[in-house]
Amino acid sequence: MSWAGPEDIYLSTSLASYLDKKLLVLLRDGRKLLGILRSFDQFANAVLEGACERIIVGDLYCDIPLGLYIIRGENVVLIGELELEKEELPPHMNMVSEAEIKRAQKVERDATDLKGTMRKRMEFLDMD
Amino acid sequence: MLFFSYFKDLVGREVTVELKNDLAIRGTLHSVDQYLNIKLENTRVVDQDKFPHMLSVRNCFIRGSVVRYVQLPPDGVDVDLLHDATRREARGG
């Protein structure tokens, strides 16, 4: 990811062609951040202006505003350019409030936890 | 630098990049760098229903460190050429 001249930024792997554009940043922990790329370096450290986190649970989603974020490069999985004329999400998805998405998130987490403990107990039974 | 050169030759071809988080993205290889960071164009996610947030992403940058596999076009590898290059590199030349 070298510094490229203004005429070949669109040919290189550098993030320069994404500067000042609205992006989706996928992080290693599965979080999705949206914001405008203002700066970056060779490690994919990035500065997002007007960042927000998009939480998706099933068909519900919510954008939680965060402000100005510096993301450490090692946590970045993917940086995608968002097409402005295309719908960001499938039409069947509904925007809900922050409280509501947090509740849905908790329900989902509890369900996976329950599945985990049940599996653990089954494994225990198999051992006998 | 062998795989860097190799991927540079694949620019413009259609590849599928599978990430360590099981997200698989198909697209045209736009560019690659020394870290094997990859830029794809005209991307589509293989399992779109599982990753609805990727719907409006057409171009993306993928950090080299999170790539698990790159699935190549069937005629994408010249095995003999790669074999020779590997030996040359191993000899230090």
From TrEMBL, chain A:
Any single GO BP term: mRNA processing
One of the Pfam families matching this protein, by short name: LSM
Keywords on record: Cytoplasm, mRNA processing, Ribonucleoprotein, RNA-binding
PROSITE patterns: SM
Listed InterPro entries: Lsm1, LSM_dom_sf, PTHR15588, Sm, Sm_dom_euk/arc
Domain Sm: 10-85
First-listed, main subcellular location of the protein, grouped into a coarse class: cytoplasm
A molecular-function term among this protein's GO annotations: mRNA binding
Cellular location(s): Cytoplasm; Cytoplasm, P-body
One Gene Ontology CC term in the entry: ribonucleoprotein complex
UniProt cross-references to CDD domains, sorted A to Z: LSm1 (cd01728)
Family: Belongs to the snRNP Sm proteins family.
PANTHER family, per database record: LSM1, U6 SNRNA-ASSOCIATED SM-LIKE PROTEIN LSM1
Described purpose of this protein according to its UniProt entry: Component of the cytoplasmic LSM1-LSM7 complex which is involved in mRNA degradation by promoting decapping and leading to accurate 5'-3' mRNA decay. LSM1A and LSM1B are essential for the formation of the cytoplasmic LSM1-LSM7 complex which regulates developmental gene expression by the decapping of specific development-related transcripts. Required for P-body formation during heat stress.
Description of how the protein assembles with itself and partners: Component of the heptameric LSM1-LSM7 complex that forms a seven-membered ring structure with a donut shape.
Protein name: U6 snRNA-associated Sm-like protein LSm1
Organism of origin: Tagetes erecta
From TrEMBL, chain B:
Function (record text): Component of LSM protein complexes, which are involved in RNA processing.
Biological process according to GO: mRNA splicing, via spliceosome
GO CC terms: catalytic step 2 spliceosome; Lsm1-7-Pat1 complex; P-body; precatalytic spliceosome; U4/U6 x U5 tri-snRNP complex; U6 snRNP
Sm domain sequence ranges: 2-76
Protein's recorded name: Sm-like protein LSM2
Alphabetized Pfam families for the sequence: LSM (PF01423)
Entry keyword set: mRNA processing, mRNA splicing, Nucleus, Ribonucleoprotein, RNA-binding, Spliceosome
GO-annotated molecular function: RNA binding
Family: Belongs to the snRNP Sm proteins family.
InterPro entries according to UniProt: LSM_dom_sf, Sm, Sm_dom_euk/arc, U6_snRNA_Lsm2
Broad class of where this protein is predominantly found: nucleus
Superkingdom of origin: Eukaryota
Cell compartments where the protein resides: Nucleus
